[in-house]
Amino acid sequence: MYKFVFFVPEDNLEAVKDAVFATGAGRIGDYERCCFEMKGEGQFRPTEGAQPHIGVVGSIERVKEYRVELVCEDNLIRTAVAAMKKAHPYEEPAYDVWLLADL
């Protein structure tokens, strides 16, 4: 089992979650579409060669984003990450994947 965390702008939150949940990620027992969300602010500065969805090259941009955390079975994690990347508006979305211990 993996913990999958990604950061997404508020305007794209539901579409990206829908894409990830469609892969089967976010299931806990008899429950589906399980996640934790926390609102915050992301910061980045696009460098030369970037094609930013938000902001301009060379300028720091701050965006209202959500951190979304969910669990994902081993056989689905690559598909879930690929679905997030495809649905996400950023060319380089920020995300983490952790292997969970079974205790």
From TrEMBL:
PANTHER family: NGG1P INTERACTING FACTOR NIF3 (PTHR41774:SF1), PTHR41774
Protein name in the entry: YqfO family protein
The organism's place on the tree of life at top rank: Bacteria
Upper taxonomic lineage: Bacteria, Pseudomonadati, Pseudomonadota, Gammaproteobacteria, Oceanospirillales
InterPro entries membership: DUF34/NIF3_sf, N-reg_PII/ATP_PRibTrfase_C
Organism name: Thalassolituus maritimus
